């Protein structure tokens, strides 16, 4: 059973990758954690493999078979409205988190914590984490805005 659950996730991602617009790659870190993404993770991850353009170009679009269930326009509109609402909520949350991350980052010069006063490397590490958090939230906001723009 454990093998089935481990195989189901990557298979689903690979199936999705054949219809996605970006190349999906498999990454592994020093701890053996595996991640699938179309964006390279932070340092310390090694790229194992990718599925992308060549896989999509190999598969040709096939028409839906006769009798294939279709979604009526009203149902699709309601689904799109729910999707738009979810994306809007996520955008508002990300904007709030970005504001908090920017405040913590303090324009690149936050006050050192008491335990960092004697350890410059500890301060530099915290500064790097804060900078990375700001960057992550900015990227998330950009992606959410693109998704919302595609719905309109």
Approximate strand percentage: 5-15%
Q: How is the main sheet built? A: 3 strands, antiparallel
**Overall radius of gyration:** 21 Å
Separation of termini?
A: 43 Å
Q: Label the structural class.
A: mainly alpha
Whole-number count of domains: 2
What is the string of helix and strand elements?
A: HEEEHHH
Which bin fits the share of residues in helices? 55-70%
The shape, in one word, is flat
Uncertain segments: 1-5, 16-20
Query: How many separate helices?
Result: 4
Mean pLDDT: 80
Number of strands: 3
In the sheet with the most strands, the strands line up as 2-1-3
Kindly list the characteristics that best describe this protein:
152 residues; mainly alpha; three-stranded antiparallel β-sheet; 3 strands; flat; disordered N terminus
């Amino acid at each position: 059973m454990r093998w089935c659950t481990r195989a189901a996730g990557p298979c689903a991602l690979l199936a999705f990758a054949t219809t996605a617009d970006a190349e999906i790659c498999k990454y592994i870190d020093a701890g053996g954690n595996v991640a699938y993404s179309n964006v390279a993770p932070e340092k310390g991850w090694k790229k194992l493999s990718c599925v992308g353009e060549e896989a999509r170009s190999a598969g040709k679009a096939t028409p839906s078979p006769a009798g294939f269930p279709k979604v009526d326009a009203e149902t699709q509109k309601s689904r799109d409205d729910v999707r738009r609402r979810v994306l809007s909520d996520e955008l508002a949350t990300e904007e709030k988190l970005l504001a908090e991350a920017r405040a913590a980052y303090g324009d690149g010069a936050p006050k050192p914590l008491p335990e960092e006063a004697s350890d410059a490397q500890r301060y530099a590490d915290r500064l790097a984490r804060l900078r990375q958090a700001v960057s992550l939230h900015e990227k998330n906001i950009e992606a959410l805005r693109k998704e919302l723009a595609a719905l309109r």
